[in-house]
Amino acid sequence: MGDYINGITAEPLSALEESRSINIANLLKERDLETIASVLLEDTFRDTDIMRKDSLDRFLDYAAFKAKTGIPHIPSLAYPSMRMIDTELEKKTIELVNEHLYPEIVLRILKYFTRNIHDTDANLHVAWLIRSDAIIRSIYETYSRFRRDIFETDPDKRSINVKRIMQASPRTDNSVASPLDAACRLKYVLEFIALKQNTEHIFTREDLPLSAAR
User: Fold this and answer.
1) Under 8 Å CB-to-CB from 37, ≥6 apart: which residues?
2) What are all long-range contacts of 203-207, with beta carbons under 8 Å and residues at least 24 apart?
3) Are 210 and 147 in contact, with CB atoms under 8 Å apart?
4) Tell me: the pLDDT tens digits for 21-66?
């Protein structure tokens, strides 16, 4: 029995490739990892509207939702995260994020963290999935850039890097793209990642204070 996408049974992969709206849950359930990654990436490349969520954005949304409706994982009371109940799905998702969808997934992860201004704890659900040094390094470098932007005196220049990562319009109100707020969100993520795995070859906790901007 094939996959279901928008109610249509899809036996051959070509049917998936023709779909304009991939059912992420069914895709993760029915296909091996290389095929999942291929379908997600091809669908993303086909969608040229950067203002709209693509298949990788929706994949991260789905992963975060599955964790948020899962089980508590609290290595420290300061970092109340959640994990998926389905351990096999979590394992698949971790491998997809860190291997099969790299490097395209990096910008989506940064966008997810930067845009999430109302539910910062949910960022930890996605951060739990990250294992790759390359992805962690990208998060740290973006954090460092935002941290430097805090001290920019021109309001438009101060917010431009945050808007770029958010993929927001340049006309977006600068208050929504505050580098201080965005840096704080990424700092929280980096602290959590450092708690769950060794990051000292990329950054240490002493590198993270906002006052260390340079």
Assistant:
1) 96, 100, 101
2) 203/140, 207/140
3) yes
4) 689 999 998 779 999 999 999 988 876 555 678 999 999 999 999 9
